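Single Protein Entry

Contents — chain, fold
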Amino acid sequence: MKKIILESHYLASLEYYSLISQAEEIKIPMIDVFKKQTYRNRCYILSANGVLSLVIPVNYSVGMGIEDVTIDQNQRWRKDHWGAIYSTYGKAPFFDYFSDDFHISLHKGHKFLIDLNRDLLDLTLKLLRLDIKVIYSKERFQNSKENFLDIISPKESFVNRKIYTPVAYAQLFGREFSPNMSIIDLLMCEGPNSRQILSASFLNNQK
């Protein structure tokens, strides 16, 4: 898989990363219309109380492109998100290695959602040692086998999309493995093994 087209996600899911781990180039449309209840401004982590949704409050109007969506600075979401990440992963094997980088990215005071997501995508690709070219484009993309826009959604199970199949790793909480958490869950728990797990999680790589 050479190129793929995807929308911007916040600390995206393992399904998202298993897909982009197979690409040489990703195109992210800046004019992508923001939609509620999507991964554009939310992620899921596995806390002591189960799966927890972290949602960034945003200011937008219907039909607005994600390049114009701003983060609501009047809410204390940064404190809440970092508090949840710290309480969840503070004792994870690789928290001490990665926590400063994530804390810095989350607290830069980004005005626009796309800029925060871009910062975190760049960081996670670096930590995963994935050499992928990321292009932010104002093109309007036609349907093609490269186009995955609005396919990866929390409204439907990943099982139905046949992109990702879980490869279990040691999580901090729960008796059973919880699949398709945010990339931060995998990185904090597995560190340098994360890239291999993502590659093995891509459905087309499995025998």
In short: Residues 113-128 form the longest helix (16 residues). Residues 173 and 207 are 30 Å apart (CA to CA).
